[in-house]
Amino acid sequence: AQSVTQLDSHVSVSEGTPVLLRCNYSSSYSPSLFWYVQHPNKGLQLLLKYTSAATLVKGINGFEAEFKKSETSFHLTKPSAHMSDAAEYFCVVSYSGGYNKLIFGAGTRLAVHP
Amino acid sequence: SAVISQKPSRDICQRGTSLTIQCQVDSQVTMMFWYRQQPGQSLTLIATANQGSEATYESGFVIDKFPISRPNLTFSTLTVSNMSPEDSSIYLCSVQGQGDEQYFGPGTRLTVT
């Protein structure tokens, strides 16, 4: 069965410092993996997706994630945090058991301090 | 990506009543999905709705409580029936993109008193 574990429920960084949000997945086949962001009182926005092409995936707003099969990880990074990055981030795996179902991690709340 | 709208954006309802949430997409899509996000929680899939067929419900969700309609390829509704305070959540619809990704509507924030 597919699942995702986000290793940190809260991450706090200073503006201008790097961001690392950790995600491990479990899948019995080669998965599709995603990161979504949810700003307060806003809908979900797709940041980036991995679909078995390049292992380093670049997304919007300077975010990127690296798929590491040996570690079953898909961590999200950004070199320099901005105040506007403060939001909830979800790591997501796609389950293709007859229909496309997304399985969401518990989420990581990112706080950015001046 | 598709543009998705939901109505209402928020509502406050009395327990025992029902609320129907509408989801409109600006292009034709085969599959639409309904999710629930309880306060401070992640998203959980309620059901998958294909046009012209019965919705497929996930474990823990039943049609009597969450009836879904899918009359055409751009529209769907989710009804939350006989509401209780435990139904207070954000309800989101989504559509599948060109790959496995999904695009989400802005959500409907429901409070049941």
Description:
- The complex is a heterodimer of chains A (114) and B (113).
- By secondary structure, chain A is mostly beta strands.
- Chain A is built from no helices and twelve strands.
- In chain A, a hairpin with a 5-residue loop joins strand 5 and strand 6 (44-50).
- The radius of gyration of chain A is 14 Å and the shape is globular.
- Chain B has 113 residues and is an all-beta fold.
- Chain B has strands at residues 4-7, 10-13, 19-25, 31-37, 43-50, 56-57, 68-72, 75-80, 89-96, 102-104, 108-112.
- In chain B, the strands form two sheets. In chain B, strands 2, 4, 5, 6, 9, 10 and 11 form a seven-stranded mixed beta sheet that branches.
- Chain B is globular and about 40 Å long.
- The model of chain B has no long low-confidence stretch (mean pLDDT 94).
Gap from first CA to last CA of chain A: 41 Å
Helix content of chain B: under 10%
Mean pLDDT of chain B: 94
Number of helices of chain A: 0
Please report which band the strand proportion of chain B falls in: under 5%, 5-15%, 15-25%, 25-35%, 35-45% or over 45%. over 45%
SSE order of chain B: EEEEEEEEEEE
What are the secondary-structure elements of chain A, in order, as H or E?
EEEEEEEEEEEE
The proportion of residues forming helix of chain A, as a percent range, comes to under 10%
